[in-house]
């Protein structure tokens, strides 16, 4: 029975086998010592995936392409002097765009079979993995930057330089590229007995070991470490907000909570399902019915996690009052409205008296507090040196 490939199968190393030795499930498991699993058929799971996944991948492609293109255009066109948070946001938008570009390929592959050839098989798989991880890493960079900007504005201001931040950006891309090496090496096109072509990683006789390793890597680097870092950063930021009690404190706390909750809700179900699949591969528990149920769950939770490229950039972008102002300028220009001279080109540090009043009254985001923390540390340093 032929199998259909999916991004999940490629990047968690849930590989498919064209031989009769392995199971015929949609997500292939190497239960070679258990006859029950060898006889466990996944026809209904495959039929469900061939309808559900292409629809979801297409929706992710449309929403992710539109949202991230808008974000990219606004950042490139309106923000002439970008701070590092906005540089990370720019890279996040690029990463998400490259990620969603792979969705139509997987939609066609799941609904029919891989018709794009061997070269695109490797390229699309590698692009998927690189941008899967780089997107999460850039979110962590934004959280770290905001933490340093607010909590350690004075002590770390000289350490938080543009050159170091750009170096961190390059390190993110290099790390994501290194993680994608298994895709470059092992992913290839395979022909099934029915004459259908599928794109997936073939690890030979070490398939189960690779599956467990890549799932463990994905749960640590793609969920657990970023989540723990986010909780630490925003709990410290929350303590600063409560202590200083700036105007708009409540909204800033709600933004921080929303970012943490959104990340958890999108990624925890997927990571938990991968963990349960690993236990199933190790035969810690399970039977055919549980295996089928986890297959359904894996498809649904994977799709939910993929929506991070649609909503996460929007959450981070609209947590910044600066970005909302740039977006208004951009939309006004697109709609043909005339702005006051110099509105779009005005540096971020120069505000009119009315905008100063608005910023003082809003304090609507953690970015505003970070600006004031940084300015305060600089002023204090000037006084000490005088």
Helix tally?
Answer: 15
Which oligomeric state applies?
Answer: single chain
Major sheet: arrangement of strands: 1-2
Q: How much of the polypeptide forms β-strand, as a percent range?
A: under 5%
Helicity range of the residues? over 70%
Q: What would you call the shape?
A: globular
How many structural domains? 1
* Uncertain stretches: 1-6, 10-37, 339-364, 377-386
Taking the sheet with the most strands, its summary is: 2 strands, antiparallel
CATH class group? Mainly Alpha
CATH topology: Rhopdopsin 7-helix transmembrane proteins
Radius of gyration: 24 Å
What is the chain-wise order of helices and strands? HHHHHHHHEEHHHHHHH
The total beta strand count reads 2
Terminal Cα span: 79 Å
Mean pLDDT: 78
Report the CATH superfamily. Answer: Rhodopsin 7-helix transmembrane proteins
Q: What class would the helix/strand composition place it in?
A: mainly alpha
